[in-house]
């Protein structure tokens, strides 16, 4: 697949989720995103109001993560976190599922957990991505997570937080795309460090990429 730098940039959620990120670090992330005109800047919810202001009068969207990175907070906490981030200016929310409940076979809980956040996000006409953390899952569980996210009304399924044992894999992205068809977006995130890796994820079916190596990727030929 051949994409210009400008085209590739619009696949990228330029990400800084480090717990020790300072305001100066977040500002640098925003300036890089504006320079390359990425799809978004993805940060922890604390920084959303600041990022919203930094990205004013640009086409770069602010994104907040919710229930991050473990997914084991309560449904009420996730929903409130999403509500607060939206009030602070988030245009998209990336939430982590309750991974243990998925693996334990509690499908109803997982679907309801997602749906509660979906309702909050969609009430503001914004997008919800659901992080399923593929490194913990086998293929049948990846399929199940995608199916539950779709039933709950999510807009995207996403591979990873980037804080687990492994990030996105081409074969997982392909499986997720096969499962959701063209009905949902697929976001590959974690461990994407080069243009070649980014293009491989897109070829496998990713419609968005979460990356912190944005400058490196977009500087390569």
UniProtKB/TrEMBL annotation:
One annotated GO molecular function: deoxyribose-phosphate aldolase activity
Substrates-to-products reaction catalysed: 2-deoxy-D-ribose 5-phosphate = D-glyceraldehyde 3-phosphate + acetaldehyde
Organism listed in the record: Bombilactobacillus bombi
Function text: Catalyzes a reversible aldol reaction between acetaldehyde and D-glyceraldehyde 3-phosphate to generate 2-deoxy-D-ribose 5-phosphate.
Protein name per its UniProtKB record: Deoxyribose-phosphate aldolase
PANTHER family to which the protein is assigned, alphabetical: DEOXYRIBOSE-PHOSPHATE ALDOLASE
Gene3D superfamilies tied to this protein: Aldolase class I
HAMAP family registered for this protein in UniProt: DeoC_type1
Pathway(s) where this gene product acts: Carbohydrate degradation; 2-deoxy-D-ribose 1-phosphate degradation; D-glyceraldehyde 3-phosphate and acetaldehyde from 2-deoxy-alpha-D-ribose 1-phosphate: step 2/2
Protein family: Belongs to the DeoC/FbaB aldolase family. DeoC type 1 subfamily.
Alphabetically ordered keywords of this record: Cytoplasm, Lyase, Schiff base
One biological process term in Gene Ontology: 2-deoxyribose 1-phosphate catabolic process
EC number: 4.1.2.4
Cytoplasm keyword on record: yes
An annotated GO cellular component: cytoplasm
Enzyme class: lyase
InterPro entries, per the entry: Aldolase_TIM, DeoC, DeoC/FbaB/LacD_aldolase, DeoC_typeI
Subcellular location: Cytoplasm
Active site: 94, 158, 187
Claim: Cytoplasm is one of the keywords in the record: yes
Matches recorded under SMART domains: DeoC
Source domain of life: Bacteria
Gene assigned in the entry: deoC
